[in-house]
Design brief:
Elements (H helix, E strand, L loop, with lengths): L11 H11 L19 E6 L6 H16 L2 E6 L5 H10 L6 E5 L3 H5 L19 H6 L1 E2 L2 E2 L1 E2 L2 E2 L3 E5 H7 L7 H11 L5 E4 L6 H13 L10 H15 L12 H9 L3 E6 L4 H5 L6 E4 L17 E4 L6 H14 L2 H11 L2 E2 L5 H7 L4 H8 L12 H16 L5 H8 L3
């Protein structure tokens, strides 16, 4: 999810290409000798779920697949912002793991270096998977990763506060601004969101930008400026705190839980924290539209599991079988329910919502969500940086919403 986004933005992708060229393009992941599939008894795994509860919940899924395949696993977890550095180090020393987890926007960039094995060549496909996730984990027509679960962002609201104020959950931007203003009073803002100078700030802006027809291939368009104006209007009217330029998504959640914000833009990973605050009555709706005929488009979060290239073909195939197991219907549903995430297979979505009603809005939003790398591929981080810089310029009054993107991109 985006709260663990890799801060390095993979300027190191070029470096990794050079590293892989120097070592023949083969990750180690074990012995370079050939072996039959039956002799593969162990796989190494690297991921960044290094904190509980995610660490333990993911371990259960990994152990289940290891048991089904009759193997043992050696798992290493690292902090999210160190994963790519670790991948670079392991590529140069030929010690890439057999199975590598990557944040979905990073799959194309690592695949472009030649570090990963195409899953299609080992019998895996993206059939039935949400198109946005297939787009994120494919490169030059080949599939390099599969994500068992995904997530996105939507609009949480305090049901009690809205009821007391006589406010309906907003469906349009105008309704959002009106509701936020009406819900604002001393000690409480109408809405909280994250507009900080990181990829997290860009991620939270995408529902407004994309839903309005804005596009990262042309950040100086009127549609993008209109979306930024929404953020500006909410802050300038006093409906949102000026501190949003520094807040993380966790900070927005803390404001909401403390009763200092009546609504917040956030993701389902905050639900466990909300459930620990029984006095906070909440619900979720899709992110509002600028115009009623628009389709909501939000970004897809979630991590994909990949198979680094390995001279040991049997071990590489076993790793692919492991990835396939992680993406079974049973595992997708189990992980989604345990971690408040969403299965990536469209055929599972209706069943999932019946079992976890609090995820209804997120699940609906995922159907039309798209990947951050869908249009720019490995150039996405550059656009993301321009986006969060423009947001900062506009919210601090250093540029108008119309000029902020031009200024941020050096125009």
């Amino acid at each position: 999810m985006i709260s663990k986004r890799i801060a390095a933005a993979l300027a190191g992708a070029t470096t990794l290409s050079l590293v892989l060229a120097a070592c023949g393009g083969n990750g180690g992941g074990g012995s370079a000798s050939s072996s039959s599939g039956d002799t593969v008894k162990s796989l190494t795994i690297l991921d960044y779920y290094n904190n509980d509860p995610d660490k333990s919940l993911v371990q259960k899924g990994l152990d289940s697949c290891a048991s089904q395949l009759g193997i043992t696993i050696q798992r290493e977890t690292v902090p999210g912002d160190t994963l790519i550095q670790k991948v670079l180090q392991q590529a140069s020393s030929k010690t890439l793991p057999d199975v590598l987890m990557l944040d979905n926007p990073d799959v194309q960039q690592i695949a472009a270096t030649g570090a990963l094995a195409p899953l299609n060549d080992m019998g895996l496909t993206g059939d039935g998977v949400i198109q946005g996730m297939v787009d994120a984990t494919s490169y030059q027509g080949k599939l390099y990763g599969l994500a068992p679960v995904t997530n996105t962002i939507a609009l949480f609201y305090n049901t009690q506060m809205l009821q007391e104020a006589g406010v309906q959950p907003p469906k349009t931007w105008d309704e959002l601004k009106t509701a936020a203003k009406k819900l604002t009073k001393p000690g409480r803002y109408g809405i909280a969101f994250n507009a900080n100078a990181t990829y997290e700030g860009s991620w939270q802006f995408l529902p407004a930008m994309w839903t309005n027809g804005g596009d990262e291939t042309d950040l100086t368009s009127p549609q993008v400026a209109e979306a930024l104006q929404l953020w500006v209007d909410l802050v300038q009217s006093g409906s949102a705190s000026k501190s949003v330029i520094n807040w993380t998504q966790g900070d927005a959640k803390d404001q909401f839980v403390a009763g200092k914000a009546a609504m917040m833009v956030n993701g389902p990973w905050q639900i466990p924290a909300l459930e620990k605050a029984p006095n906070v009555k909440w619900d979720v709706v899709k992110f509002p539209l600028n115009k009623p005929d628009q389709t909501p488009v939000a970004p897809l979060g979630g991590e994909a599991w990949t198979v680094p290239l390995n001279k040991d073909q049997a071990k590489q195939q076993k790793a692919a079988d492991f990835v396939k197991c992680l993406n079974s219907d049973e595992n997708e549903l189990a992980w989604a329910k345990a971690r408040f995430t969403i299965p990536t297979k469209t055929a599972l979505l209706d069943q999932y919502v019946k079992e976890v009603p609090s995820m209804k809005a997120f699940t609906e939003q995922v159907k039309t969500a798209r990947s951050r790398t869908g249009k720019l591929g490995d150039k996405w981080p550059d656009a993301a940086k321009v986006i969060y810089q423009a947001i900062q310029l506009a919210l601090t009054g250093k540029a108008s919403a119309q000029d902020a993107f031009k200024q941020a991109s050096g125009g």
